[in-house]
Write a structure and sequence with these properties.
6-stranded mixed sheet, 6 helices, 19% strand, Glutaredoxin, alpha+beta, 43% helix, 6 strands, disordered N terminus
Length: 145
Amino acid sequence: MLFSAAIVASNLPVIAQNNILKSYRWKNRLLLVFVPQVQDQRLTTIKQTLQAVECEFEDRDLLLGVLTRNAPSRIGNDLISSYDEAELRQKYDIKSNQFAVILIGKDGKPKNQLSDVPQIEKIFAQIDTMPMRQQEMSETSNQCN
């Protein structure tokens, strides 16, 4: 009995760390951008695009996550530890030198994974077909027009 308790106890930090995205569930959709370096031109392009559509991005309860090895990783304003960044890379099978963009729904499940800079209109269109987003749109008016 003591042996099994030790195994459970030794797994607790891993379980806690593995739920990094749990705090965003049912509150936010996530656009996770994995880049080899924070200076990556593809990340710059994404950030510039998102600045131009900031209202629409926020209207869809989206947060941008930037995960990289050579600078602090973030989801929205939250810092992500290098351990958690590595865990997310492992979870989504993304190598440290790989570029990838993953859309995570409010349910915490991945909805799309791309290896190129996304066309934000396509991301918005995909989100707008989701049942939860359809409900949100029926309950509130778009304040971005």
